[in-house]
Fold this sequence. Notes:
The complex is a heterodimer. By secondary structure, chain A is α+β, with helices and mostly antiparallel strands. Chain A folds into three domains: about 30-165, Beta-Lactamase; about 215-310; about 315-480, Histidine kinase-like ATPase, C-terminal domain (Heat Shock Protein 90, 2-Layer Sandwich). Chain A has 13 helices and 14 strands. In chain A, strand 5 and strand 6 form a beta hairpin. In chain A, helix 9 packs antiparallel against helix 12. A seven-stranded mixed sheet of chain B has the order 1-3-2-4-13-6-5, sandwiched between helices. In chain B, strands 7, 8, 9, 10, 11, 12 and 14 form a seven-stranded mixed sheet that branches. In chain B, about 45% of the residues lie in helices and about 20% in strands. Chain B has helices spanning about 1-20, 50-60, 75-90, 100-110, 120, 160-170, 185-200, 200-215, 220-230, 240-245, 275-290, 290-300, 325-330, 330-345, and strands spanning about 25-30, 40-45, 65-75, 95-100, 130, 135, 140-145, 180, 215-220, 235-240, 250-255, 260-265, 265-270, 315. The interface of A and B includes residues 73, 74 and 80 of A.
Amino acid sequence: xxEAAGPFxxxxxxxxxxxxxxxxxxxxxxVVVALAAFAYGRQAARTAYDRLLLGxxxxxxxxxxxTEGRPAVDLPVSAFELLALAPDDRIFYAVxxxxxxxxxxxxADLAPPPRAPAGARFFDDRFGPERARFVTVPRRFAExxxxxxxxxxxxxTLRARETMALGLTRDxxxxxxxxxxxxxVLALLMVERALGPLNAIARDLxxxxxxxxxxxxxxxxxxxxxxIGAMNRFMxxxxxxxxxxxxxxxxxxxxxxxxVAALRVQAELAAEEPDPSxxxxxxxxxxxxxxxxxxxxxxxxxxxxxxxxxxxxxxEAVDLREVALGVIEAGDHExxxxxxxxxxxxxxxxxxxxxxALSLAEAAKNLLVNALRHGAGRVEIGAGxxxGxxxGxxxGxxxxxxxxxxxxxxPGPAPEVLERIGARFERNAAARGKSAGLGLxxxxxxxxACGGRLALEPGPNGFRTALILPALPATAEDxx
Amino acid sequence: MIARLLLCLALLAPPAMAQDAPRxxxxxxxxxxxxxxxxxxxxxxxxxxxxxxxxxxxxAEAHPDVAVDxxxxxxxxxxxxxxxxxxxxxAGADALLxxxxxxxxxLVNLGCAQPxxxxxxxxxxxxxxxRDEIWGLTREPAVILYNRRLVPPEDVPRSRFDLxxxxxxxxxxxxxxxxxxxxxxxxxxxxxxxxxSLEATSFGALLEGFGRAGAIATCCSAEIIExxxxxxxxxAYNVLGSYAAARPAPDVGVIAxxxxxxxxxxxxxxxxxxxxxxAAAELLDFLLxxxxxxLMAARGLILDPGxxxxxxxxxxxxxxxxxLLVARDAEKRRAFIRRWRETFPQPTP
Lengths: 480, 349
């Protein structure tokens, strides 16, 4: 079982989850940044190179002169040097009059000049095989021999613009990528740090001796404390069960050794006894002894059962009256002490506690058998609620005490016996083949498992043993 | 079915080509490479076969699977064909190599080229490549030529300012004896003159000087070199140095102007619709490689104009780039030529 707990198919590690989350964040962010940077880069490149275009067009427009009634253009080299700032782009230029007739420049199927020459007008079109950006600048003349508007159109392919836009985008992406790497590294370090306690716990657990069930150190972050608390509770339960098992084995060995040895000796003697009447008497004794041994075994097993159940069984609401009734109805007392008077004393009101019905029944049975064996006179078994503050109960609320009790008319055990009573086992009792101590110890274990205690007290009419348990509050309130 | 279709195409193609291509610009052709070559590379170039031929032959030898159809064109005809092919999306030349850099830059700007990147192309300086679609292969200075016999050593112009001083002299010694390219007839002359106009304010003074000295504008490098050698002209301005180096003539002295020396780099491009772009890229890498550069240097296509240390700062490479589009602008060209014409009233026949 321990071996199987090794590398088992775990779901994805926290680190990979965080890294995936950060990475997807970065990818989404990167795409957004790339798109934004590209849009910005294109805008910036467009603004920058549109100015060049406009500057060149204005340069050309400046040189237009009216000579002998017709416009003449002295194309300035400076305009082309300006455009050559986009070194690898092809250049279009055309100077046209208002009718669209080419004065100089290149023929192209361009949009006709606008009717209302308001100012520079930019537009996109094709220039040969490539896309290009154009600007048309009007210049108005009102000379004696020429009147009208001349349009200068200058265009340029987009290579430099695209290079600039891509360059800006690339720079932005390099910066973003760098930031992303830094972010990722930081995230990894954070995760590493945050998961440190988890690793410490894992180390602690794997370094632990398999028999070491002591609680683990609680110095962990709040999120982990829940896990550690649950683990510690689990280990505590496990430890109690292991302890109970160990005790059971030790008790059984201890308690059975002597009576079994005695039985063997007696059986051997009986076998060698020549006198049939004495042999018969010896056989009867052997039978009595083996019956007592059986009782002892029963009780030991039931104690082991009770102790086991005190940790393992689910608690539920149990009415103590039903427990008492169940014990009477089982009729075990008829076997132990035939003919003795046993009285059931229960009221109308339910007496509910949280507990394990089987364990409680076992405890009640033991108390009854004890009273029958060791007490005197009439034996009474009952259940009820006693109001008042019970200091021994750790609920803190003012709840009633539910009591399951057995009383007899005798004086009870001697005070020195009372001192030792209720311990795990009673050597003397065991040696005598009796089991009074064991019965009480079962009752006490059950009482404690239910958050109560076992009370042994002399009463007005004899001796009373009682399981005093915290009553269910609802029960008390339900009663009028 | 497919075979029939191919047959139809084969029947249709040659007449269509013949119709579209102005064959008048074709100056010479040659074929390099083995008969067994699987790929034919059509190279259109303005460079003479005897100048570029050795490099192409070496390429064909190193790449036995590629044969090169070498076609030598006038720059304007070559440009027109390439542009028409580009507009029509038709597979014409596989590679263009032209000294009229501005024309090829315009083709690239129109989206007529396809890119190629290799260690060799990426090693080129910025001024010699654009968009990885056009590359400068050579290094040819624009020089001043003079006749050693007729120009005394103290008169040899070391810079444009010296030339200006000569032209302003009253002794009529150089009257009608100075030659330069006719920029209307020579694309290269226009490109040099245009670069001069951008480079320095001295261009106006130079034009004025040419006018005062009755300078001659003529069309061709060969004619200029011959004229200098024979003593018909004493000084020639802005002649492509590689021609002088390739055609050593007696009594011709070469000066790289000290104020600044324009450096032309012949441009190479692979048309977008090329049928054999892979072979064109191989040729490009070969020409940029040590063997190709060595063979071109042997033919004067790669020159160190100054020959001295401090001349380095005087080099003004004509950068391959969009600024050359200004040179191609029709208005600009018209205005420029009008200004030029004021100095050189009538084109030389």
